[in-house]
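anyone seen this seq b4? input:
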Amino acid sequence: MNAPATPTAATLQLPAGPGPAAAALRWLCDPRPATSPPAPASVPLGAVLEAAIDAKLICLLAHRLLAGPPDAALSRPMRSVLGQIVRANTLRTQLHRGEAVRIVRALTGRGVPVAVLNGLAYDTALYPPGGLRQFTDIDLLVDAANRDAALDVLAELGFTQPGRSAHTRQRSTGDALTPTVSIDITTGLGHTTDPADVRAALARTEAADGDGGEALPVLARADALAHALARLAARARWSGLADAARLALAAPDSFGEAVAAVAEPLSAGWAVLHSHLPDLVPGPLPVACGGPDREEVAG
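predicted toks r here
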């Protein structure tokens, strides 16, 4: 199995480093708000807002703060701004989900297996409804043999503008909030680029319906966790930590088989989780995981 090079110790460090702002970010990454400690009260809200924006966790922060006690020290204007942030991202996510449904229909109609990856997939399968997972584009996984066919389908659907890579396509939407939608076609996962492994992962996809709309194909939990941990090891980011934490709680017991196949990148990714969320994720890397379902413990 082809896997990324073994990560170095430097990849275990997340931006922002230690300190009260990092403690607030760890609180946001923990998917158990009912059992985890409350947001550090000693951190000025301005510092938390800045850290959450930089970490792309501002929608999670807004959701947590607005769901807190009514007598929380939030002014009416602050509550209004936080509500607008969440509503805007909800609308943006809905537009992206509609585009993803349209593309998946077209691809499957041509006999091209596909899976939605990363931001939109995580928002659909792991987070409470409301567009809490921020992302910038739609990532789609296809077999390498089908990449050109997938790009042809995108062109037929209006995605003709070039993007940041050779396999990224964009189209203008006419929407004031989301003027452009970008689609990134990939043929590899964080832990493997072997075409046989990718085909196997595509064959194991699960249906995720998000907010009750048409279901999207996403990676099975074991495959998704392996992908997320390898990506976290290669590039430690707070949003990736939040994703991997939710997957670690929700992964099936068969996860041990995935660990045995790609132990090095998964172990490094697990080390990131354990170092920042030790109460949630024990060390060393376990052979099987299980936990609560998609609901974020009703946070």
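The longest strand covers residues 180-186. Strands lie at 115-117, 138-141, 161-162, 168-172, 180-186, 206-208, 216-218. kinda curious what u guys think
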